[in-house]
Amino acid sequence: MPGTRYPLEVQPLIPQRLTRLTELASDLLYSWNRSIRALFVRLDPRLWEQCGRNPKLMLRRVAQSRLDEAAADPLFLEEYQRALSMHDTYHAVRLSSKRTDIDPQTDLVAYFCAEFGLHESLQIYSGGLGILAGDHCKAASDLGLPFVAVGLLYRQGYFTQTIDAQGNQIVGTAPALLADLPVTPVCDSEGHELRVSVTLPGRTVALKVWRVAAGRICLYLLDSDVPENTNADRGITCQLYGGDRDTRLRQEIVLGIGGVRALRALGLAPTVWHINEGHPALQIVERIRELTAQGRDFDSALEVVAAGTVFTTHTPVPAGHDIFDQELFGRYLEPYVADLGITLDELKSLGSSPISQGGFNMTAFALRGSRLHNGVSRIHGGVASRMEAYIWPQIPWMENPVGHVTNGVHVATFLAHEWSSLFDVRFGSEWRNKLTEADYWTRIDTIPDHSYWSVHQSLKGTMLETVHRRVARQYRRNGAGEGVIRRLTRQLEPDAKAPLVIGFARRFATYKRAGLLFEDPKRLARLLNDPDRPVLLLFAGKAHPHDHPGQNLIRLIHEFSRSPEFEGKVILIEGYDLALARRLVTGVDVWLNTRSIPWRRAAHRDKRPPSTGS
């Protein structure tokens, strides 16, 4: 009789000279430090791509012979020592003594978010909210701020996307093996894995705490997939934005309430609590519960909690705000109400809003439970002030306390290496310390036009090569012949006349209006088919599996891309992620934003000075 079959993986042994490769692979500093990433690329460029640019996975799969060769290669060892020196120096430098606004000995910022987009090797993000959160973490690390982040460990991430020959978005899942992720379990003082718990109707759910190192800061992720839980509860943290409304509310209880309990179990006492979008707002409930357990009444506890809370709202459309049915919300929060000293109806009233239609609005609750509030641009700050004016009915909307902090990006992550090298040559390395000084950057005008254009054209060519490989593979999978593929990708060929490349890459939510360019097809065809000034449109992005209008936008763009007047001029790229985003950002000529802006005229009348909120 045949015996039992077991999977067997043969892993290489890291040579003694290269033992710290494991340490480098477990610190997401590699997501913005090119010297560290370059080590893994040099080991095996093809394997690096096959492993999804995941250094930890790569170290499990790289050939032993390649590691042994690297350990004996003076040039590789020199790069290895240089990367280690940069890593160690980075970690040795702490908060600047010149800062007076925060004390690393007494202050700590706790940053809660449902998703974090640090790098494609940790797939716990879906879109701009996560990318912003990841960039916040990196910036906090660079500044040496006392900062921790809290999120959820999604074993299946968001979802994988392919697009078939008819333009349909095909949703897939790719469960991650924990051994492949840059995460480590948090242990208590006795060496046992740390557990915290939250109460759900009729049961207690255990949560494991994982730690992600990202330079000088830590990201703690909660995981319900532990043996103590039922199969249903083990799936709570399975997928980002997956499941039904019950699942979403369970996730937000785990993130908000469980997140506070995890920080307490770690012995951390944040002085600032940042709620990034409404998903983590239930942290307010837990922090109030802690104070009422000490004898405070609910109203004073709410004021104490709100005084230390910052809330950032992101979405200017009602559909972007979590609203839960009152019965559902009451069923899940009832176990916590007894400890708050108020009735369930009183708690529900804190989440009331004109758009909630009787439901519990997490944005409204976050606003009432915080004292610093901001939108994510000047225009959005004005829009949010008007949208949320019901919180402060006694004053005109333009005078309420919703301000704004304009989103930025983490320069070291998104600035191409070629630009960094040019700046080093022209300005020396000091430019890295001058990123926020507007006057300093007037010197960019001193770069000769030919140097500037040469770098841009080189990056554009590299981007077009990447897109060519991806879409050719996409077309082959969908059954296209080589002749058809050549016709559809002719603008991407290296010997083609370089077109003006316009990029549109973001979530295919309807309010982002991805189809706006196609409202006048004849005019667009004239622009794209000008023989002297060719134009190429690149589209990429995902629509939520439940967002059928968003998926219709993908089909619309696909249909236009296959019509005779637009073939090869409109290209839809599947599988959008951070790696593709970085490549597109560095290579396109124009980055297109066609989103609708509610109440734009009213928002422009808002003449308040910029906020200094979060």
Shape: globular
Rg over C-alpha atoms, rounded to the nearest angstrom:
25 Å
Structural class, from helix and strand content? alpha/beta
> What summary fits the major beta sheet?
10 strands, mixed
* Quaternary class: single chain
Low-confidence runs (pLDDT<50, min 5 residues)?
599-614
Distance between the termini: 67 Å
Number of helices: 23
**Helix proportion range:** 25-40%
Name the descriptors:
globular, alpha/beta, 614 residues, 4-stranded parallel β-sheet, disordered C terminus
SSE inventory with pairings:
Elements: H1 21-25, H2 34-43, H3 45-50, H4 55-61, H5 64-71, H6 74-92, E1 109-112, H7 128-143, E2 147-152, E3 160-163, E4 169-172, E5 184-185, E6 195-200, E7 203-214, E8 217-223, H8 231-234, H9 245-265, E9 272-276, H10 283-292, H11 298-307, E10 309-312, E11 323-324, H12 326-337, H13 344-349, E12 360-361, H14 362-368, E13 372-375, H15 378-387, E14 402-404, H16 411-414, H17 417-427, H18 449-477, H19 482-488, E15 500-505, H20 521-528, E16 535-540, H21 548-561, E17 570-573, H22 578-587, E18 590-591, H23 600-604
Parallel strand pairs: 1-2, 1-9, 2-8, 9-10, 10-13, 13-14, 15-16, 15-18, 16-17
Antiparallel strand pairs: 3-4, 5-7, 6-7, 7-8, 11-12
Helix pairs in contact: 2-6, 9-10, 10-11, 18-22
Description:
The protein is of the alpha/beta class and 614 residues long. The strands form four sheets. Strands 1, 2, 5, 6, 7, 8, 9, 10, 13 and 14 form a ten-stranded mixed β-sheet that branches. A hairpin with a 5-residue loop joins strand 3 and strand 4 (169-172). Helix 2 (34-43) runs antiparallel to helix 6 and helix 9 packs across helix 10 (283-292). The longest helix has 29 residues, at 449-477. The chain is globular, with a radius of gyration of 25 Å. The relative contact order is 0.09.
